[in-house]
Amino acid sequence: MHKETPHIKPNGAEIAETILLPGDPLRAKFIAETYLEDVVQFNEVRGMLGYTGTFKGRRISVMGTGMGTPSMSLYSWELINIFGVKNLIRIGSAGAIQDHLNLYDIVFAMGSSTDSNYGSQYNLPGQYSITASFELLEKAKKIADEKGQRVHVGNVLSSDIFYHADPTALQRWSEMGILCAEMESAGLYMNAARAGVNALCILTISDHIFRHEQTTQEERQTAFTNMMEIALELA
């Protein structure tokens, strides 16, 4: 009997143990069509496109996750616990909040600070430190070094809030050394930790929040090739 959920219906198509997770399903389609061979589509429910193919002879999947912790957490939970995915690599965009970061810079999210309440479900008797899989992080840094690609490694903010009522909030995160802001890594990392699998968030700086610099939507979908290629090599 084929495995499926209300949100992912592969109809017998394979989902690989390593998966790339862009927020935008059209970016998943772009990656599949540009980089993968022998591609089979495994999901189209709610337009959340997913594909499996080969990259340099290795099986790899790619699927959109939507925006925010609830969406990422739903899809990653099902991929891990229903479909047996072992390595989950988010590839996304982020807004820089440090002066030394510039547009198109790549960030590896070693840690994920958050304002989300997602972790409350675990009823932990303290504050949980949300971190990436060192196995994937170490491998990704080695790949970037071999490519001569400069990357930033550190703590990011995974926020539930895009339009914040407090205009000073990001400045306070910046003062704690947070590199950039995105919306999905915390839920992904907690799901992975709970299940004992690997997760890493690789980000490209799409805008600088304090300098009011930004890339276009078209560039976010197709031009972040350095980030995509590092992630593909992790398979």
UniProtKB/TrEMBL annotation:
Enzyme Commission code: 2.4.2.1
Gene Ontology process terms (BP): purine nucleoside catabolic process
Residues reported in the UniProt entry to bind phosphate: 23, 27, 46, 90-93
GO MF entry, a single one: uridine phosphorylase activity
Binding, a purine D-ribonucleoside: 7, 182-184, 206-207
UniProt-annotated site: Important for catalytic activity, residues: 220
Pfam families: PNP_UDP_1
Keywords: Glycosyltransferase, Transferase
Entry-linked SUPFAM superfamilies: Purine and uridine phosphorylases (SSF53167)
Nucleoside phosphorylase domain: residues covered: 19-226
InterPro entries hit by this protein: DeoD-type (IPR004402), Nucleoside_phosphorylase_CS (IPR018016), Nucleoside_phosphorylase_d (IPR000845), Nucleoside_phosphorylase_sf (IPR035994)
Catalytic activity entry: a purine D-ribonucleoside + phosphate = a purine nucleobase + alpha-D-ribose 1-phosphate; uridine + phosphate = alpha-D-ribose 1-phosphate + uracil; a purine 2'-deoxy-D-ribonucleoside + phosphate = a purine nucleobase + 2-deoxy-alpha-D-ribose 1-phosphate
Superkingdom of source: Bacteria
A GO CC term attached to the entry: cytosol
Class of the enzyme per the UniProt entry, highest EC level: transferase
Residue numbers annotated as active site: 207 (proton donor)
Role of this protein: Catalyzes the reversible phosphorolytic breakdown of the N-glycosidic bond in the beta-(deoxy)ribonucleoside molecules, with the formation of the corresponding free purine bases and pentose-1-phosphate.
Stated family: Belongs to the PNP/UDP phosphorylase family.
Subunit structure as annotated in this protein's UniProt entry: Homohexamer; trimer of homodimers.
Protein name: Purine nucleoside phosphorylase DeoD-type
Organism from which the protein derives: Paenibacillus solani
